[in-house]
Specification:
Strand content: 5-15%
Distance between the termini: 30 Å
Number of helices: 7
Order of helices and strands: HEEHHEHEHHH
Number of strands: 4
Shape: globular
Length: 190
């Protein structure tokens, strides 16, 4: 049932987001050199690695490290990269991952393999979050602010495990509605 809902939502979302995505891709190409898309390896359900697309927000040649580890992350952004991140427009290509069955609309955010192996060593039960498909949005994203520390990862893990154990269509609907609120009214974002 969840897969059918994901496909239906992807079809509905594609109607307004496909033209918008084409505009964003063109804007990325016109304001910086390189591809409009950035693909990164992520860990999905059952710890399977998949390639997740996003619109490129960083300059070509920027090292593939977490933004919080950079000395000056703003200097690595493309001219429209900050805007794309603030508005979550960089996430539009992830609809492809939903259609391909690698992601769901709702689930734990997929992490890079190197972070997963580190966090599995530091946090008991971290691997349990991979018993469900990762999502474009999730319970942790709407309930906990962006963070980059091990303690932040521990807090987000609690939300991810709650979601994995208590999944229901109603909970997914609640998360989707809260995500729309956060995207449309960023002042309410955590």
């Amino acid at each position: 049932m969840k897969r059918s809902i994901d496909l239906l939502l992807a079809l509905i979302a594609a109607i307004p987001l496909l033209p918008l995505g084409l505009v964003v891709a063109l804007a990325v190409k016109l304001t910086s050199r390189g591809s409009a898309l950035y693909w990164s390896d992520r860990v999905g359900a059952n710890e399977r690695i998949f390639r997740m697309p996003k619109f490129r927000t960083m300059k070509v040649g920027t090292p593939a490290v977490a933004t919080h580890l950079m000395a000056d992350p703003k200097s690595a952004l493309t001219p429209i990269g900050g805007f794309l991140r603030r508005t979550s427009l960089d996430e539009i290509p992830q609809l492809w991952s939903v259609v391909a069955g690698e992601m769901s609309f709702v689930g734990p955010r997929p992490e890079r393999p190197q972070f997963v192996s580190q966090l599995e060593n530091l946090l008991p039960y971290y691997a349990e979050r991979h018993m469900v498909k990762p999502g474009i949005t999730g319970w942790a994203q709407i309930n906990y602010p962006y963070g980059a520390s091990t303690e932040d990862a521990r807090q987000k893990l609690e939300y991810d495990l709650y979601y994995a154990k208590n999944y229901s269509p109603f909970l997914d609907l609640l998360i989707l509605l809260q995500t729309v609120r956060v995207v449309l009214w960023p002042d309410g974002a955590r």
